[in-house]
Specification:
Layout lengths: L3 H6 L14 H4 L1 H13 L7 E5 L11 H14 L3 E5 L17 H11 L2 E4 L6 H9 L5 E2 L3 H5 L3 H8 L12 H16 L5
Parallel strand pairs: 1-2, 2-3, 3-4
């Protein structure tokens, strides 16, 4: 999203008057041609995902959440296995509504209206966020970037916070894992959040 294929999909930047511009079907023509070319050489047993901007955050002049459903339908019909649902990155005039898990509703809508697997992204930073999204069926996968930049071991720490003791830790980190387990037990006994 925010790159070449997105510039074809959004009417904000696609001002073409040929078969690659105008209607949503025409604006999707080039991205679908690219997907089909990749699918032709990629092993059929391996999945392919595509990231979309589900909302340009500029109102009806750009891609709206309803448009995103139609975009996802076209991707799904073409054989895309998973829709990585983000938003924005298409206009400097965008006015996103930020908040905790603020893009998850777009993933939820596509997953449940189109019936395809989705990945949620966007201000998801707590283990409980990930757990809630997955357990509520709002997405099939969750992508986190900034939490891992802040803490490269975020996933291991999240497993401890959620009480998952079955996660395999690299051998050099086992003493750290054991310390986290002890701290989690103490905090749980004291009624504190890990």
């Amino acid at each position: 999203h925010g790159y070449l294929l997105s510039s074809f999909i959004t009417p904000l930047t696609n001002r073409r008057t040929d078969e690659y511009g105008g209607s949503l079907e025409n604006r999707m023509r080039y991205p679908l041609e690219i997907f089909r070319a990749v699918r032709a050489v990629w092993p059929s047993e391996k999945p392919i995902s595509m990231r979309i901007s589900a909302n340009d955050w500029v109102g009806i002049e750009g891609v709206t959440p309803a448009d995103a459903v139609e975009i996802a339908k076209l991707l799904h019909e073409a054989g895309v296995d998973l829709c990585d649902v983000s938003a924005g990155q298409t206009s400097i005039a965008a006015k996103p509504v930020y908040g905790r898990m603020f893009q998850t509703p777009f993933s939820d809508r596509i997953r449940n209206e189109v019936g395809m697997a989705t990945m949620a992204v966007g201000n998801i930073y707590e283990p409980d966020h990930v757990n809630s999204i997955l357990m509520a069926g709002r997405a099939d996968l969750v992508a986190l970037a900034r939490p891992h930049l802040t803490d490269p071991y975020w996933t291991l720490h999240a497993a401890v916070a959620l009480g998952d003791r079955g996660v395999k830790w690299p051998d050099p980190y086992l003493p750290g894992r054991d310390q986290l387990y002890r701290l989690a037990q103490r905090e749980a006994a004291a009624g504190l959040k890990v």
